[in-house]
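Structure (tokenized):
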């Protein structure tokens, strides 16, 4: 896929996943490093998220799991919001976190559940 189509595909996916407010916040990266912003949109969302074998909700399950496992809690909030936006339920999300506790440990799961609670309160 040519670069402009990759970028366009990435922006389309980001519109499906994230609210306008979240996207505007993410675009702050463009001011710091336009090249890195291009990579995030074109590769992260254009090449990866726009693939068709998995649904966006399945991809968000994987993303939530990976973020919890890494302890990447700053990223977790926006992906919890995205998971809800693409159809995951609060019950499914809490079950993902509970399941992760067996593999990542309770401290990470507790942190993730607290962030999920904040997101749920805002919906």
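Design, position by position:
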């Amino acid at each position: 896929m040519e670069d402009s189509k990759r970028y366009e595909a990435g922006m389309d996916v980001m519109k499906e996943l994230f609210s306008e407010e979240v996207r505007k916040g993410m675009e702050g990266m463009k001011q710091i490093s336009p090249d890195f912003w291009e990579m995030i949109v074109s590769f992260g969302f254009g090449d990866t998220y726009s693939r068709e074998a998995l649904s966006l909700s399945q991809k968000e399950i994987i993303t939530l799991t990976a973020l919890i496992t890494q302890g990447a809690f700053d990223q977790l909030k926006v992906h919890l919001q995205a998971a809800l936006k693409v159809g995951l339920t609060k019950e499914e999300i809490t079950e993902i976190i509970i399941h992760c506790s067996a593999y990542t440990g309770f401290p990470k799961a507790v942190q993730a559940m607290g962030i999920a609670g904040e997101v749920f309160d805002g919906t």
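Reviewer-requested clarification: The mean pLDDT is 95. The radius of gyration is 15 Å.
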